[in-house]
Amino acid sequence: xxxxxxxxxxxxxxxxxxxxxxxxxxxxxxxxxxxxxxxxxxxxxxxxxxxxxxxxxxxxxxxxxxxxxxxxxxxxxxxxxxxxxxxxxxxxxxxxxxxxxxxxxxxxxxxxxxxxxxxxxxxxxxxxxxxxxxxxxxxxxxxxxxxxxxxxxxxxxxxxxxxxxxxxxxxxxxxxxxxxxxxxxxxxxxxxxxxxxxxxxxxxxxxxxxxxxxxxxxxxxxxxxxxxxxxxxxxxxxxxxxxxxxxxxxxxxxxxxxxxxxxxxxxxxxxxxxxxxxxxxxxxxxxxxxxxxxxxxxxxxxxxxxxxxxxxxxxxxxxxxxxxxxxxxxxxxxxxxxxxxxxxxxxxxxxxxxxxxxxxxxxx
Length: 364
Ligand code: AMP
Known about the structure:
Layout: E1 13-17, H1 21-32, E2 36-40, E3 54-56, H2 63-72, E4 75-78, H3 85-93, H4 101-107, H5 110-119, E5 127-130, H6 133-139, E6 146-150, E7 160-163, H7 169-178, E8 184-188, E9 194-202, E10 208-210, E11 214-219, E12 222-228, H8 234-251, E13 255-263, E14 269-275, H9 285-288, H10 293-302, E15 313-321, H11 328-331, E16 337-341, E17 352-362
């Protein structure tokens, strides 16, 4: 290992690409461990800027900014998967990027991601590459129940259209046109019982630790609540952790990953997607575990041993989306409740403004 990529010490600096709430919470966890942070994010008023040691307000592919980051930091991580390939390569070639570029390549493209997940031995929804409206019309000839999703840049239900067997040729053409000609995949609709996610981490020396899966409820395509325990059978929990572990090993991953699953009625699992970063459905770990997903991520990327992911409490995490944040003062006095606001100056519909976690009893 070179001097640059060596294990970090308190007082060293960690770079973070992206300054949203996830970058902010990584910076806070780093600060608790005595690690300084530099955030690269174009928005001068981003949430992480308020808590990081230093903020570089520049585009992610700005060479001067990347060189500065490479000079100042002993490791660089990211809070979102759409890092420009050139920037990721620049940092990876210098041995600085954790997790590395393979995780980004797989998760930036839904087609590559699903193929990779299948190679790891896990199930996905049936999927088909769609390059034109003709591809879609052909696949839907006899009727198709599914979701058309852009291969890239989709999040929180954006870049998706529901496809149903009743849709006419014109409906299908309209559905394709609504994605503005973007390369897409058509996924079969999964009639699931519930959705869960596993937050897991892999250290630089290959140790893997997983948190208990949360049961997630989405509202308008955005995560609304995560609940622990998930209520799914223990064999399903073990299988979900096993799949997470296989994916982390296959990627040679370093850091925290979030993997979303559909649980079918027979308890079997279908992987929906993976996010190579800390994840919204892991925010509960701040309140219900000794070591949060944010601290776990910082430990991993710094080259430190992972912490204990066990859960001391049952809990429910709820996102504060848009105007929900106006309720925050009525939440402050509630027993067992911890609240986290992201410091965003403008409230907009659908924007994640904060979250709270309510502890509901000792871990069951
Ligand atoms: P995604 O952006 O792919 O995570 O999708 C957002 C949400 O849409 C998921 O959490 C599910 O609730 C739902 N969804 C996505 N893909 C499918 C599918 N193939 N079948 C059924 N529901 C889905």
